Amino acid sequence: MQLVRRDPPHDVSTPAPECHPLFNDGDVTLASKDGVLFRVHMHTLRITSGFFRSMFSLPQDGTPTANPGTLYLEEDRHTLESLLRMMCGLPLPTIDDSDALDNLLEAVEKYDTPGPLSIVRLLVMTPTVEIHPLRLFGLACRFGWEAEARHASSQTLSYNLYDESHRAFLQRLPTGSLLQLLDLHRSRREGLRARLNDHPFVSGASAHCVSCQTIIDYHTWRELKYRIILEIDARPLGDTVEDGLQDWPEAMSCWMAKCPKPECLRALYDKMETLRVIKDCIEKLPRTI
């Protein structure tokens, strides 16, 4: 990919470039692809960008670097303005669009600007930048931002990764990062499945009523347990399980289940205690990669 062009476009119908009011004093002129000029001091570009530092490095004979003239870049005016504001220490632009953020990050990588990259790292964690958790997870993995990757992974728990609408985000992830995310979602499902088979939950197999010793078939619990696992598989966050335990048909059958012996009719499940323990189980599941 060509990063910088020294020759102006040949289309004579293109209007004369305008100079950006914030960047009109410098010895280097950068031109955006949509016809806006940015005049910036060479010294600023050299100390903030590895790319321009290499371009403007002094020749071996020690003579001053010649004025490079106008450099025609591939970025649009908004991307270039955002990048240069960060490089020059000017007030930060408003970045509330994820596509604009992607364009800015491409420029940050291309021109090797660690300062703007650190600023973007802070921006993506602020409420003003609305970014899809899967997109944020991808960015964090791409740049090695471990804390941000953990945060984003926890935000993905409200999504079903197998939903077709998320495929584009997942296809961009490195294989290792994708496997980490899949493992997190699966670990919550399997962790809850295992916990629902442990004490104080019944196994779901036939047993005897603790009051009258009548044989009890705990099929209602088996069906409810299966419904809970399906729900957390589709939404690993588990926040919809509590409401479901109030009105799912499988839940209603559980709470109404009694010992079949007419002289006993003991309730088989303690609803409030079961709800409490299930909620506690979900809260203890892993939340981040």
UniProtKB/TrEMBL annotation:
Instruction: Kindly give the Pfam families that the UniProt entry links to this protein.
Output: BTB
Q: Where is the BTB domain?
A: 26-87
The family database entries (InterPro entries) matched by this protein are listed as: BTB/POZ_dom, SKP1/BTB/POZ_sf
What domain of life is recorded for the organism?
Eukaryota
Q: Which residues cross the membrane?
A: none
Q: Which Gene3D superfamilies match?
A: Potassium Channel Kv1.1, Chain A
- Output this protein's name: BTB domain-containing protein
